[in-house]
Amino acid sequence: MPKQKTHSGAKKRFKITGTGKLMKQQANLRHNFEGKPTKRTRRLSQEQVLAPGDAKVAKKLLGR
């Protein structure tokens, strides 16, 4: 049986930590910065841990 390939989109979007958690970049940080407070922009620039339900699907896509 052939090997399972890693999902190309998933490997660009998620990063696995040393403990096995998945990190993701938060949404709403692409444009319209004049309308967003600087405080919000700084908060959104931090990476966030993926929710457990989503992490289960994403790990499967990453071949973990």
What do these coordinates show?
The protein has about 60 residues and is α+β, with helices and mostly antiparallel strands. It has one domain: Irregular (Factor Xa Inhibitor), CATH 4.10.410.60. Helix content is about 35%, strand content about 15%. The protein contains 3 helices and 3 strands, in the order αββαβα. It has helices spanning about 10-15, 40-45, 50-60; strands at about 15, 20-25, 45-50. Strands 1-2-3 form a 3-stranded antiparallel beta sheet. A hairpin with a 5-residue loop joins strand 1 (about 15) and strand 2 (about 20-25). It is elongated and about 55 Å long. The two termini are about 20 Å apart.
Low-confidence stretches: none
Q: Give the total of domains.
A: 1
The portion of residues forming beta strands comes to 15-25%
Distance between the ends = 18 Å
Report the average pLDDT across residues. 95
Q: Describe the global form.
A: elongated
- CATH class placement: Few Secondary Structures
Number of helices: 3
Strand-pairing-aware structural class? alpha+beta
Tell me roughly what share of residues is in helical segments: 25-40%
Order of helices and strands: HEEHEH
Major sheet description? 3 strands, antiparallel
GO cellular component, one term: cytosolic large ribosomal subunit
InterPro entries: Ribosomal_bL35 (IPR001706), Ribosomal_bL35-like (IPR021137), Ribosomal_bL35_CS (IPR018265), Ribosomal_bL35_sf (IPR037229)
Protein name: Large ribosomal subunit protein bL35
Family: Belongs to the bacterial ribosomal protein bL35 family.
